User: Fold this.
Amino acid sequence: AFHDLRTPTAAQTLRRAASLAEEYVRGLDLQQRRIEGTEPEDDDWFFRRITDWKLMLHCMWGVKLAGKIAAPLDSEVKGALDTYDQSVPHLSIMRNVEQHIDEYAVDTFPRYKPQKRPNTKKPVGRRQLEAQMSWSADTFFWLGCEINFAPARAAAGELLRAIRAARDAAE
Assistant:
């Protein structure tokens, strides 16, 4: 289509980034409610909360990507993205392992070197995928990594606010 041949304007890019950020921040809140609450399948599915935490990782990564879309266009967004990244220092390790679980499950890494666990500096392997994980309502531990939801959510909210402000200023 003709519109795919034109580079989007800054305003269009910021609108897209704001829309994506809104979706992923709402996803964070949804997953937090699920993690803190009870679900009908809880009696039969012990690892349901781990699945919800892994879905939260997806939303956290989406917030980061929305920020990366907008950051080149606004210095306040860039600062908010840096703060967000600091609030989730192990996000990329957890996301990369989860995203490439097929390779980690059989210890084959044809495309890249395996992620290293921050607590031991040893590569993540198949034995860590379903072991050494724990969670609370606010914290997820996996692969020697930790994600604490409260500061991550606060930083995600600030990043969303910065993206919205940049979008509004560009329109």
The first strand starts at residue 134 and ends at 135. The CA atoms of residues 25 and 63 lie 7 Å apart.
